[in-house]
């Protein structure tokens, strides 16, 4: 975007030229030729005061200068801008009105008046002035761009696109116009055009990370994994010290099940995110814990969950996963402790009640407590097939086979794809004398988990017993 700072400086210089009696003039035909030295003196003093940041003093000098040259546009312009800066909107508008009367077809004055209205939140009037600026100067890129920003703020996305396309027509190397056009298209749900214009923005300014950030989000929303990865990698190449894109990239690989690629990115998130807030670090540690668990690196998984719990001791997912990790590592006491912490912290955490109850049932200990815990879980989620299986298994371990069979049959109806439930059901059929039902249930379990050698042995033994 080409900014008119040079033009402003030229206008200021022109005024000195005019007031000194040079060839150029901004006076209207009705104003007599010549100048008043007192106007030049006070204008010069005002310019020096303004340059030194003495706004009130500058205003007084400009006001005095206008006493001697009341139709000089440049002084009115300085006053209008300073009044606006001071929040003296009534006085500023009065100066802008005088300016427009003096130079009604001056596009820059309409642009400044548009900015005045925009500053006062009168967006409709601002748009009107920006439009007039472009009517008097069809190549006025700043006015088109400013109108595009307002149309965007008003949710008038199609109108904003037209404004930005005018800027692009005039300045085809303008990355910000491409970027804003892309954003408008994204709000219009035209993802293809949004992607196209973000790509153009990136092409116009290759070292600007923002287009790649939005490209990554759009490609991800379209399910385009490879372009999502590519966009995040380009963003990271420009801003390698920002933790968030590493988290996004790590989570993307995590979702794909590519834990070997997820872990380095998530680790980088932790390294860079120490000052990025607990939420970012907590998310990274949680994903790392799960990724390490799924790659059988239990020590690193435990460390990740422990780090997360240091940041957020109330994080239920981390504590639950840590307890499950302890269970998998045959660290019963540690698992029991963590599940009890969960239950005490959240008396409605059904999964924690169920898991601890099932642990007791599996070990054939505290069976009355196991039944109580699982029933508590079922009071929260009465139709959870896994919880019903746990209750049936606890009854089985207590020797209540009739009750066990009833619950396990119900669990199988509710959760028809879990091999453990069918193994339990087969065991219940077997102990109650229904070998045909037992074999059928075990076979279904084996179909769902063909690698279970224990179930294979149960089937073989049951068939031998039937033949004997």
UniProtKB/TrEMBL annotation:
Keywords: Repeat, Signal, TPR repeat
Domain of life: Bacteria
Xref: Pfam families: ANAPC5, TPR_11, TPR_12, TPR_16, TPR_17
TPR repeats: 73-106, 107-140, 141-174, 175-208, 243-276, 282-315, 316-349, 385-418, 419-452
The keyword Ligase belongs to this UniProt entry's keyword annotation: no
Anaphase-promoting complex subunit domain location: 207-239
Signal peptide (UniProt feature, chain positions): 1-29
Coiled-coil region(s): none
Protein name, per record: Anaphase-promoting complex subunit 5 domain-containing protein
The organism of origin for this protein: Candidatus Desantisbacteria bacterium CG_4_10_14_0_8_um_filter_48_22
């Amino acid at each position: 975007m080409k900014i008119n700072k040079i033009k402003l400086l030229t206008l200021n210089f022109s005024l000195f030229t005019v007031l000194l009696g040079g060839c150029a003039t901004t006076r209207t035909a009705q104003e007599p030729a010549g100048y008043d030295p007192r106007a030049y003196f006070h204008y010069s003093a005002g310019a020096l005061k303004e340059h030194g940041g003495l706004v009130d003093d500058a205003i007084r000098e400009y006001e005095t200068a206008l006493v001697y040259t009341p139709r000089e546009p440049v002084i009115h312009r300085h006053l209008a801008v300073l009044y606006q800066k001071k929040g003296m909107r009534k006085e500023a508008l009065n100066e802008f009105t005088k300016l427009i009367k003096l130079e009604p077809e001056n596009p820059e004055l309409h642009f400044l008046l548009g900015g005045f209205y925009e500053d006062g939140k009168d967006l409709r009037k601002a748009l009107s002035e920006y439009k007039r600026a472009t009517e008097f100067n069809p190549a006025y890129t700043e006015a088109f761009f400013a109108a595009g920003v307002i149309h965007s703020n008003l949710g008038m996305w199609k109108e904003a696109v037209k404004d930005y396309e005018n800027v692009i027509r005039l300045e085809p190397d303008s990355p910000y116009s491409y970027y804003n056009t892309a954003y408008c298209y994204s709000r219009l749900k035209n993802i293809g055009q949004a992607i196209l214009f973000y790509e153009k923005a990136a092409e116009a300014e290759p070292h600007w990370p923002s287009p790649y950030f939005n490209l990554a989000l759009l490609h991800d929303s379209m399910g385009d994994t490879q372009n999502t990865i590519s966009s995040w990698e380009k963003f990271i190449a420009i801003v390698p010290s920002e933790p968030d894109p590493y988290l996004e990239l790590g989570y993307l690989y995590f979702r794909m099940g590519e834990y070997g690629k997820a872990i380095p990115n998530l680790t980088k998130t932790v390294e860079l995110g120490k000052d990025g807030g607990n939420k970012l670090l907590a998310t990274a540690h949680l994903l790392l814990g799960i990724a390490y668990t799924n790659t059988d690196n239990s020590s690193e998984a435990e460390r990740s969950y422990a780090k997360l719990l240091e940041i957020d001791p109330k994080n239920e997912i981390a504590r639950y996963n840590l307890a499950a990790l302890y269970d998998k590592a045959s660290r019963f006491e540690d698992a029991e402790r963590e599940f009890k912490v969960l239950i005490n912290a959240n008396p409605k955490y059904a999964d924690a009640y169920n898991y601890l109850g099932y642990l007791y049932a599996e070990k054939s200990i505290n069976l009355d407590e196991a039944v109580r815990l699982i029933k508590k879980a079922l009071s929260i989620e009465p139709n959870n097939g896994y919880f019903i299986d746990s209750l049936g298994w606890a009854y089985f371990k207590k020797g209540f086979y009739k009750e066990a069979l009833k619950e396990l049959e119900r669990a199988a109806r509710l959760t028809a794809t879990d091999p453990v439930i069918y193994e339990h059901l087969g065991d219940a059929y077997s102990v109650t004398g229904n070998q045909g039902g037992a074999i059928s249930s075990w076979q279904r379990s084996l179909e769902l988990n063909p690698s279970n050698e224990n179930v294979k042995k149960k089937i073989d033994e049951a068939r031998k017993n039937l033949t004997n």
